[in-house]
Amino acid sequence: MASTQSHPSNLTRANKKRSLKWRERRIGFAFALPALIAFIFVILIPFFESLKLSLYRYTADMDAPRFIGLGNFTKLLSNPDTLTIWLNTLTFVTLTTASTFLIGLAWALVMNQAFKGRLVLRALSLLPWVLPSTVTAFLAAWIFNGQYGVLNAILLQLGVISHPIAWLAERNSAMASVILARVWLSVPLFMAFFLAGLQGVSQDQVDAARVDGCENFGVLRYVVIPHLAPTMIIVVILGTMGNLQAFDVIYALTQGGPVKATTMLSVEVYKQAFQNWDIGMACAIGVLWFVTIAVPTVFYLRILFKRED
Amino acid sequence: MLLLNTWRARAGFMATLMVIGGFIFLPLIWMVLTSIKPEGEIFVRIPSLLPHVPTFENYIAVFSRSDTRIQLVNSLITACGGAFLTVALATYAGYSFAKFRYAGRKPLMFLMLSAQMFPFAMLLISVYPMLQWLNLLNTRTGLIVSYIILALPSGTYMLYSYFLSIPNEIMEAARVDGAGELYILHRIVLPLAMPAMVTVGLYSFMWAWNDLLFSLTLITAPELRTVGPGLLLGYLGEGRSDWGGAMAESIVISLPVVLGFAFLQRFFIKGLTAGAVKS
After folding, report:
1. A52: confidence class by pLDDT, cuts 50, 70, 90
2. For A123-158, what is each residue's pLDDT tens digit?
3. Which residue among A89, A277, B10, B23 is buried most deeply as judged by most CB within 10 Å?
């Protein structure tokens, strides 16, 4: 600031520099503008519009939505199905995320070892994640098929069961099938995250632990797992968010059935909105769904925000 | 990292490799084997592992149906369109958030990221009447525009993280030489950001190609249907009886993403996990 009083030409130079900075800022903002406009129109406005519609009664036979305050929500809370669907969602998300976590971590540790053909195997094991969810659902439906499914064939051959079981027609086994299908398709992604985390484990620390007398379990316990902890948190949060959003594989495999046994919030919103055309009710369930996803998202954003500073 | 010098460690390693490997690969192998079996070998209580008489009749049937071909073309158009649009928007926005300082850029970015907590089906409820109003319901354009929802927020963040790793000095030097901002971005920065752009492009292509929900909701005309709903509605109607055909069609519609992925896999995993694991 000392230079501003010394010479008039410095002053204009400072001004010029300031206006240049300002110009640069404007250009910078202009670069973000198309994405922001798209974001506002396809995400932000639809979100608030749906939020608003949760306070309206709006069904296929009505010309315009009618404001009913919290009517949809009181109806929702008095309906025992709501709790069932919410608990279905929590069961699905918890079991899927936990199983994918364990299998993905174990597979990453295996794929991190040096052995012949591991690069090929690593690339191939990403396949389930790349396949369309509809394909995964069909494959699962075929494996769990009640008459000619290969799972029944294997269990019959082994003598575990005496007659074929209709896996997708019974509550618990239908839920287990949906969970297995979703775990199968998300293991590769979890593995990729863990593998990236494992690249950062220092061999020196591993060697030091070995000198201190650690076996493999000790190395995992005292070196690898502490190092992976941040990755693990991110994986659990992203996995939970993704599983809460999951629709495709569930709907293509069971359409939420039998009865409501595999109906998650995602499936229920879709059915209420695009099959029953009860838009107000669908939006009210959507609000419940949004609040549920908001919990892990807030943790996720806090981690990213901290990293920025 | 792990030492496999004892009998127990080796056994544990092999067991994990076999069990998880089996879990991952046996379903895939079963899909391929079913697709090359003749009908008579599929509908048996205890099927043989390998087909006695391998056949391509299921594949021939898939390709002889015109709706499968149409669906492949529809998916190709909408997924490429969605990916192109997402990359274009996310690149400029990621660059802006990473390299320019203006009031509100951090809150704007976090607002965008927070969109990941908006349930997709809930957004579609209100996107539907908007597209209807614009006469874009039941069009490929409408579907392409809606595909932004899937990957714009995470794509912007991935590109943002990548742009942060490009040193500011490169741009400063060009500015001193009198280069304009557009020139700097398009000629100097973008070539460096190619791997990240490819990653985001492939990522959004995959989301769009694999999508069921959006296409099921926003497209009802059979001639505009994409592969996901095509497979679902095509075989659901027949009471899910033609399993050989369903597996063959599953493989056919998976090939484009699998091939794209095989070529670009190297970039992809790096770009995808870089933003989330470390910055």
Report:
1. very high
2. 899 999 999 999 999 999 999 988 888 898 899 888
3. A89
- Claim to verify: residue A135 and residue A21 sit in the same structural domain: no
Residue with tokens 């069921």: B212
**Partner-chain contact A132 B253, CB within 8 Å:** yes
Look up the domain containing A41 and give its range: 2-53
B20 vs A30, A34, A106: nearest CB: A106
A278 DSSP 8-state letter: B
3-state secondary structure of A214: coil
Instruction: Judge: A156–B45 Cβ closer than 8 Å, yes or no.
Output: yes
Determine contact: B16 vs chain A, CB below 8 A.
yes
- How many separate domains does chain B show? 2
- Which tens digit of pLDDT belongs to each residue from A224-261? 999 999 899 989 999 999 999 999 999 999 999 898 99
- A to B CB pairs, distance under 8 Å: 305
User: In Å, how far is B169's CA from the nearest CA of chain A?
Assistant: 15
Q: Is B76 part of a structural domain of the chain?
A: yes
Residue B238 falls within a domain, yes or no? yes
Q: For the segment B147-172, what is each residue's pLDDT rounded down to a tens digit?
A: 999 989 989 998 998 898 888 888 88
Q: List the CATH number of the domain containing B74.
A: 1.10.3720.10
B105 to chain A, any CB pair closer than 8 A? The answer is yes
Helix, strand, coil in percent for chain A, rounding step 5:
75, 0, 20
Rounded to a whole number of angstroms, the distance from the CA of B269 to the nearest CA of chain A is: 7
% chain A with pLDDT above 90 = 56
DSSP characters for B167-232?
-HHHHHHHHHTT--HHHIIIIIIHHHHHHHHHHHHHHHHHHHHT--HHHHHH---GGG--HHHHHH
Contact B1, A224 (CB under 8 A): yes
Interface-testing mutation among A29, A44, A142, with chain B (most B C-beta atoms within 10 A):
A142
Q: Looking at the structure, do residues A38 and A130 belong to the same domain, yes or no?
A: no
Q: Which domain holds residue B39?
A: 7-57
Same domain, residue pair A93 and A189: yes
Do A36 and A162 share a domain, yes or no?
Answer: no
Whether residue B229 contacts residue B212, with contact meaning beta carbons closer than 8 Å, is answered with yes
B2 in a structural domain: no
pLDDT of A40 reads 93
Number of domains in chain A: 2
Q: Which residue of A36, A245, A252 is in closest CB contact with B232?
A: A252
Tell me, yes or no, whether A9 and A94 share the same domain.
Answer: no
Domain assignment present for residue A58? The answer is no
